[in-house]
Design brief:
With about 325 residues, this protein is of the alpha/beta class. The chain contains 13 helices and 11 strands.
């Protein structure tokens, strides 16, 4: 049996539809708030909702909210946006990269995780099995004590390094996967350490078809991508529109290279729009509509010119592949 877990309902894989695989909708990350980085706070649910509605008006149907507990999630606000827009939202249990843990724990979370000053102290104090139990509760009971459940489990690692505490969260997430069958998502910093993450997950006996690796396009290296694809994992190209990292031509070439090598069933696409200046209704950015309204037509045009069926690939990257990737397969 196979299903997808949105915040408030389990649905069939056919019901998911056109999906962005890695976004942030409402969050107030303590790490950035403490450093005065206001651009990184998506703190106005009304504005976030307007961008979600733009996505819907262009035919979008579902969004994976990749925000974990250590990034200032607002679960009730995101659920309300899901209800008011009709866009299905998948929530995320687990953890981010350790870089962000040196920040004050939100007061409201203390009854749930304990009286720790920082996320770092919390993760350091708990055993792997205690963290595993916490992740399982977020999938089976609800996120942060709400009734809204996670549809994937996440861990993250740093730039060209995996710290001991990151490895601890990776193992906790892997064990929570075995218990729940929730799909696994990983944060890679600038696309690094994917192979090392995979080796550690193998040591936890993870079937890699349950794994999607985020930010693969930050490391625009076709050979590296092929090594990852060979393991059966999904590669998330979620930096669409981030020209500061690479032009669209680079990302499209990487994607078509994987398609040419036979890995079109393992590609996910999204924008990781985690700044006010990326959102249209916060600060005049390209917005959540950009990929579906502007990038997709360009991709189809380029793919067709190179002899592929661009529309068929779009259907895979945004519908079929997310339905396979985000399924709980019991
Ligand atoms: Zn993200």
């Amino acid at each position: 049996m196979s299903f997808i877990r949105t915040l408030d309902a389990d649905i069939s894989t056919e019901q998911l539809g056109f999906t962005y695989s890695h976004e942030h909708i409402v969050c107030r990350p303590a790490y950035w708030a403490e450093r005065g980085a206001d651009d990184l706070l998506l703190d106005d649910p009304e504005k976030s909702k307007l961008d979600v509605l733009d996505f819907k008006h262009h035919g979008g149907q579902a969004i994976v909210d990749a925000t974990a507990i250590d990034y200032g999630r607002d679960v009730p606000a995101v659920h309300q946006i899901m209800q008011e827009t009709g866009i299905r939202i998948i929530g995320t249990a687990g953890f981010n990269k350790s870089f962000l843990w040196d920040a004050a724990v939100k007061e409201e979370l203390k009854p749930i995780i304990g009286d720790y000053k920082t996320y770092y102290e919390w993760i350091e104090a708990k055993s792997i099995n205690e963290l595993t139990d916490f992740v399982i509760r977020e999938v089976e009971e609800g996120l942060e004590g709400t009734p809204y459940k996670a549809g994937q489990v996440k861990f993250g690692t740093g730039y060209n390094r995996i710290s001991p505490l990151e490895e601890k969260t990776l193992r906790a997430v892997a064990r929570a996967h075995h218990e729940t069958k929730a799909p696994i998502h990983s944060h890679t910093e600038a696309g690094t350490m994917a192979i090392e993450q995979i080796e550690l997950l193998k040591s936890e006996n993870i079937d890699l078809s349950f794994l999607s690796l985020g930010h693969m396009d930050r490391n625009p290296d076709p050979y590296y991508h092929e090594q990852i694809a060979k393991t059966g994992a999904f590669l998330s190209f979620d930096g669409i529109a981030k020209i500061k990292y690479a032009p669209e031509s680079t990302r499209i070439a990487l994607i078509l290279d994987l398609v040419r090598k036979g890995y079109e069933d393992q590609i996910l696409i999204s924008g990781d729009t985690a700044r006010k200046t990326y959102y249209k209704h916060y600060d005049y950015g390209l917005g959540l509509e950009y990929i579906i309204a502007k990038w997709v037509p360009r991709f189809v045009d380029e793919a067709d010119k190179e002899g592929f069926d661009g529309q068929k690939l779009v259907e895979k990257f945004f519908v079929t592949n997310p339905a396979n990737c985000f399924a709980f397969k019991k």
